[in-house]
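Workshop exercise sheet. Pairs work together: one partner reads the sequence aloud, the other fills in the structure field after running the prediction. Swap roles for the next sheet.
Pair: D.N. / O.F.
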Amino acid sequence: MIILLLLSSTLGFAQYGYRDSNMIGVTLGLNQFTLNSSKIETKPDMGWNVGLSMRGNFYDDWDAIFGMQFSEYNYKIATKKGISSNRDVNYKLPSANVTFQLSYKFIENHLSAEFGPMIQINGNAQIDKNEEANMVKGTALTAKDFTKMNNVGVYPVVGLTAGVRNARLNLTYQYGLMNMLGKVEGNFKGNASILCGNVIFYF
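Structure field:
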């Protein structure tokens, strides 16, 4: 359904004319995911992105972009293993997202700024089985307890894109409005912030 919507939107844009638009984009890149929480100690880590987008003329110097992306996010939570052994447990979070963005073209084909909403669907986080019984520092919960994640998130996205017509670097910042730790027992709160650096190949 989403792919059909993207295709129909692109065909509609094509009637506007051939400018910096009417293109399919293939995305490859990296992300840095941070889980912001005041009750537990976390550290950001690197992950990857792959996706598909469609760019079309919207109005004058504005383009509209529809995109779908699959990502793996990584982050760390400070724990204790045994009495005195401190361990940073790595959490992997697989996700998929859909976004709609408006893009203002400063220099057609070369430089633009984007903003818009993103809806993300993710599973529970994954950790090494050997680390599941570790105690999360500052809590009475285990590392496994913090694998329970809210599965839907809403993110405002802002970014810049620069390059040539068929290959561009895209940098974005995304902030999660919803509490990702809402399923963890104990009224914990955690909001995600994500930096992405992607290369987009347009066809």
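Discussion prompt: Residues 1-18 have pLDDT under 50 and may be disordered. What would you look at next?
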